[in-house]
Amino acid sequence: MASRRDSGLEIVPGLTIPAEELSFTAVRSGGPGGQNVNKVATKVLLSIDLAASPSFSEAQRARLLDRLGPRLTKTGLLRVQASQHREQSRNLEVARERLAALLAAALARPRVRRPTRPTRASERRRLDAKRRRSETKRGRGQRPGDES
């Protein structure tokens, strides 16, 4: 049976990134860990080269590079890190989930906004409110008998 590390990463149904395209590095993490804190590498850095990945179509790649541009390194890698657990395997799972969520959110097409017309009642309410406000302001600063 293949482990989660060996299997691909499913982003959305029908789109899975093969494990060969993902690279992960384990480094020493700060924070709690007792005696292991200075000798066990539990923090996980998971990265993928979006520009060179054959898993995405040209349209998907352009969308990812556009929406995730600020998160990319100078070499074009998208990196995700996880260090909240004391075990490397759990941090790897968290990093994989974060990467999948990040890519899925970037690939999602925004909903098209369809312009709608205001209702007749809302137009009437808006104009009535403007009229009341105008009357309030017109009533300010005038002394009785002043007609200018």
Structural write-up:
The chain has a domain at 9-107: Double Stranded RNA Binding Domain, CATH 3.30.160. The strands form 2 sheets. It has a 3-stranded antiparallel beta sheet. It contains 3 helices and 5 strands. A hairpin with a 2-residue loop joins strand 1 (9-12) and strand 2. With 148 residues, the protein is α+β, with helices and mostly antiparallel strands. It has helices at 58-67, 88-107, 120-138; strands at 9-12, 15-17, 22-27, 43-49, 77-82.
Provide the β-strand percentage band: 15-25%
Order of helices and strands: EEEEHEHH
CATH T-level topology of the domain at 9-107? Double Stranded RNA Binding Domain
Q: Mind telling me which CATH architecture of the domain at 9-107 this is?
A: 2-Layer Sandwich
Arithmetic mean pLDDT: 84
Radius of gyration: 28 Å
Number of helices in the DSSP assignment: 3
The coarse silhouette is elongated
Unreliable residue stretches: none
| Head-to-tail CA distance between termini | 92 Å
The main pleated sheet reads as:
3 strands, antiparallel
Helix fraction, binned, reads 25-40%
State the name of the first-level CATH class of the domain at 9-107.
Alpha Beta
- The secondary structure category is alpha+beta
The largest beta-sheet arranges its strands as: 3-4-5
Report the count of strand segments.
5
Descriptors for this entry?
Double Stranded RNA Binding Domain, three-stranded antiparallel β-sheet, 3 helices
Secondary-structure topology with pairs:
Blueprint: E1 9-12, E2 15-17, E3 22-27, E4 43-49, H1 58-67, E5 77-82, H2 88-107, H3 120-138
Antiparallel strand pairs: 1-2, 3-4, 4-5
